[in-house]
User: Fold this.
Amino acid sequence: MKTTIGEIAELVGGELVRGSAEAEMSNFAALDQADSSCVSFYGNPKYKDQLAETKAGLVLSPSAEVEAPEAVALVVVENPILAFDTVIRAYGVKPPEFVPGISESSYVAPDVELDPSKVSVLPNATVSSRAKVGNGTRIGSGSVIGEGVVIGENAEIGANVTIREGCIIGDRVILHPGVVVGADGFGFEFVEGRHQKIEQLGIVRIEDDVEVGASTTIDRARFGETVIGEGTKIDNQVQIGHNVIIGKHCIIVAQVGISGSSRIGNYVTLAAQTGVAGHLTIADQTTCGGRSGVISSITEPGGTYFGYPAKPMKENLRDSMRVKQIGGLLKRVKALESKIAQSE
Amino acid sequence: MKTTIGEIAELVGGELVRGSAEAEMSNFAALDQADSSCVSFYGNPKYKDQLAETKAGLVLSPSAEVEAPEAVALVVVENPILAFDTVIRAYGVKPPEFVPGISESSYVAPDVELDPSKVSVLPNATVSSRAKVGNGTRIGSGSVIGEGVVIGENAEIGANVTIREGCIIGDRVILHPGVVVGADGFGFEFVEGRHQKIEQLGIVRIEDDVEVGASTTIDRARFGETVIGEGTKIDNQVQIGHNVIIGKHCIIVAQVGISGSSRIGNYVTLAAQTGVAGHLTIADQTTCGGRSGVISSITEPGGTYFGYPAKPMKENLRDSMRVKQIGGLLKRVKALESKIAQSE
Amino acid sequence: MKTTIGEIAELVGGELVRGSAEAEMSNFAALDQADSSCVSFYGNPKYKDQLAETKAGLVLSPSAEVEAPEAVALVVVENPILAFDTVIRAYGVKPPEFVPGISESSYVAPDVELDPSKVSVLPNATVSSRAKVGNGTRIGSGSVIGEGVVIGENAEIGANVTIREGCIIGDRVILHPGVVVGADGFGFEFVEGRHQKIEQLGIVRIEDDVEVGASTTIDRARFGETVIGEGTKIDNQVQIGHNVIIGKHCIIVAQVGISGSSRIGNYVTLAAQTGVAGHLTIADQTTCGGRSGVISSITEPGGTYFGYPAKPMKENLRDSMRVKQIGGLLKRVKALESKIAQSE
Assistant:
């Protein structure tokens, strides 16, 4: 990014009320991270103290009457958050353009159903026999689309993603690099001292508008389907076992693990590093705090849970507080003991 | 899947005792997940309640005298579990057929030892110099086999797997997509304010019949070998440090981490999200519950451990119960205090 | 490895004081893991007991006057640790040689800036438009370098690594197989019942001499940069959220997760499976024990923290001890109660 304060004021339709229009800007950052080469923004009064000490070169501000260091240029705009967004869209890293066509370095089986004038298959990708790919979808470099996989329209399959045979991916789904969809579920029978594999012959179905973070793994069902419901957003390094069913519009944060056959409702939030045991149900709109360990079903919707085993927030706080009370208890018992000893 | 109840009855050698042989079936599911297009099965009396309320189109049942909704067709078979297995093998997603040959889109170094009439190398795979690949083995698309790697017979190397130089993989080993075998162990010496790399020049040896889940990482030894013993099954996103030695027929569930140089015995089970510190020993047939944190060696075989630090189950339960007793203790101490105050 | 004790003595410049120079050695191992085919070493008196019982064929020792089983050959050297290092470098698995050139099986966009006589691009790698790759750098098989990515000199990009558009990688950086750099941060706004994506338009900047373990994921910033400071070493399966800033020379062990916008100082150690919540600061030289959960900022440098929530080691020990005291408390209160009952 190379630009001037004047150009930025013009871009966002704002008024330069302090500083030089010629000054050059080369980066952008939050108020407390910015240096004099950076555009920043003041969008919320709770960052008043950061504004007062910022080293930014330019701040997009809702008013000229704000307390910012003298060296900081100010451009007044109606909505600084939206204006800043305009700046980073104009000068930030651009996502690669969608260029339809099949790279010569990729492998697409002859019986794949896709329209090469509307689908983009990048170098070193593999699209296996009988797969179908919808228009507007991009298959990233090094990704591997298994036999008979069906991918909807305008989906973004990242680099080095693997989707195994028979899985179904909806419209506008985003799979980030390294995601694995449809690996075998973890199922064995113990026969004569050895773990014998139980075949995993189901699929994974990912509904429309789901986003899945880097290196997340979603296992295929033993039979039937593992399902990720419409609009659910999954972060990096999440592990989802076979036959799990996740509802719509959930938020599953990084490094969560959900064991086989559990069912997560709609609008559920599982914060980072949470674990959910197998064959459980979690009701709609449940929130589990970071690193919760859910080992029994949550049947009432809308609750907030913490800890391992996960308990309603209140119970969890009470238990933590109680441990802190032991010190006091020890003293009180000691006092009682000496009183009684005296009275004996 | 498109079939009729009559065809399924024939396939499993069962008798249609209720419902129409012409009814079409297009899917299969567990009793409580099935709709009228689904074949299901009733294999265990503990699912009696699910049978009584199932919406399945057809249930494979051990008897005609069971309580199922009237709309549900019944086919009686001797063993419903095996019969259902037959159905899903016939109509479920088929794993890709093994087709020997080396894809033109792959790269196989000239000095690799493999028989192209008996090995399958899929598109965009890389097999490096001096590697050896046994008959019946498949190398998945996008996978990278390092220099001098030796892979046994009938192994299944998934898509986008990486096996680094010198590692040894046994017969019938399954590595799921995204697995990394033989990356450097995490070893540094702190010299003059900087972490200096300690070279990692050993290998990983994976014995026969091991299965390794998607995106699991197994580091090469500092010297000598990191070993995964025969028949051990490892789930997704497990991390195994350098010089770890895992015995035979263990079960290591998702997101477990085992630090460097620890030794796990035979028939050990580590449930999901367990952590094992470095340089420990875990005795044969130990079971660690979900999210255990093992920070000292377990020397007696056959025990069950929970919690962090991992303790025998009984001790763990006792500690949990004690925290619950604090509330009662507080009340009893208060009562004592007021009694004594009265008596003063 | 196939050699004799005599050759090893010569290699390390040591004196054979016991055993036959003709005896063949084929492996190396620690004292307690070695068998008669193995070279081992005795570098530290704390392993005296292991030396007394070792089954090694040959031990490199600082002196002839040590207690080792009679069957064990001894070669005396000044520094057994260095001498052993010499042996494993000579006979251990060799890392693949650096061979400059662009594999015909790779894809390098026409406008990439790199010198093919000094850079190595291995088969099935993809280097996208406008990328720059410094001399002495190797791009591993199956890896994907995004548009406009800048990689320094003598870097090692492992197999199946993904680096997304615009990210910056320093000199001598090592990215192990399966690493994902620059996937989108996890950011959504909840609008009318749906999670709406917040564009992630920043980058990741990895400074010189950083090493990143297999399958670790480092998300791009919302805007500006996610930064990994010079000399920091990151283990496998670590998750680093958007806009995180990690200082210089830190050690981040396997399966750690750091949430968005947190700032880690210099010389910080986060042991395995630690979690750090978002928008926190961790002061220089802090150490967090295995599986710590940091949920508030740590402002004083140099402390050691444990537990969830992470507390200074002392506090953590006290809380653990207190739980153990509840049993005693119960008994003492019972005794008091019966005394008072008697006195009533």
About this structure: Chain C has a mean pLDDT of 95. The CA atoms of residues 52 and 146 of chain C lie 56 Å apart. Chain C touches chain B through 59 residues (CB under 8 Å).
